[in-house]
Amino acid sequence: MSTHAPNEARVIPLRPQAQPPASGGPSRPPRPAPVRREPLWRDVVGDVLRRERLAQERTLKDVAEAARISMPYLSELERGRKEASSEVLAAAARALGLGLGDLLSLAQDELARYAAVPSRTGRGRAPSTGRYDGLCLVA
Known about the structure:
The protein has five helices and two strands. By secondary structure, the chain is mainly alpha-helical.
């Protein structure tokens, strides 16, 4: 019979764990709920590209070839991993039968919907009554 400890992995936390409050001492205040972050532009544009491609029932390969960009790069754009130039966005939009303005308008609509949903802190914004034409808000 062995007297060795069982073969278990030792876990070392990345952050030091908080010490429990001393007996009779004040307890820690509860942490505030995480604040919802505004999405990044590349994430929104990538979501629009993917949604449009899937709505047309087209493959990454098909759209990438039509846009003359690599399939892995298009995949990274759709996942919001890469920040695309305006030329690449225009090519991807054209490959999907959209203009660059159409793609950007769809992305702006997504951002407006996000802004209209109240956050956990209760500070959501009402949706805009106009649209952004690149220079100012048009009523």
